[in-house]
Amino acid sequence: MIRISAIAAAAFAASLLAAGASHAAEAAKVTLVYEHALPNVPGKSIRGVLVEYGPGGFSEGHTHPNSAFIYATVLEGAIRSQVNDGPVAIYKAGENFSEMPGDRHAVSANASKTEPAKLLAVFVVDTDEKQLVHPLK
Asked: What is the CATH number of domain 6-128?
């Protein structure tokens, strides 16, 4: 049975939006869409997070828990992304990228000023990890 944790979703959304509260109209909408403990990997869970960007929308620079491996797939539109000091890349619908534990996600934004964009970020993370996003300081 798939459990959706409203508390985890609210905490994730609040942590993403807190740094960019003054730009609320441009910030990403974040929804936890599934969460499930991995039965064959004790202490680990998989969480799916839908990130929706309006035209020109973005997420503030952030990191994720050191236990988190993230695999993101663009579902709609195009996403600008930069991980660590790598190049800024644009991923279109159907393309994907990953983030390794401890990576810094400096750029995460809709590549379009006129069309929406969506991505699904799948986390493999320690089950007891409550905060999935930590704003860059």
From this structure: 2.60.120.10
Cα distance between the two ends of the chain: 38
Please give the Cα distance from 70 to 35 (Å, whole number).
Answer: 14
3-state secondary structure of 14: helix
Q: What is the DSSP letter of 113?
A: S
Tell me the pTM: 0.78
Nearest to 47 by CA among 130, 135, 134, 136: 130
Q: Is 88 helix (H, G, I), strand (E, B) or coil?
A: coil
pLDDT digits (tens, 9 = 90+) for 54-101: 999 998 889 999 999 999 999 999 999 999 999 999 999 999 999 999
Q: What is the C-alpha separation between 70 and 98, in angstroms, rounded?
A: 5
Q: H-type helices in 1-98, by residue range?
A: 6-18
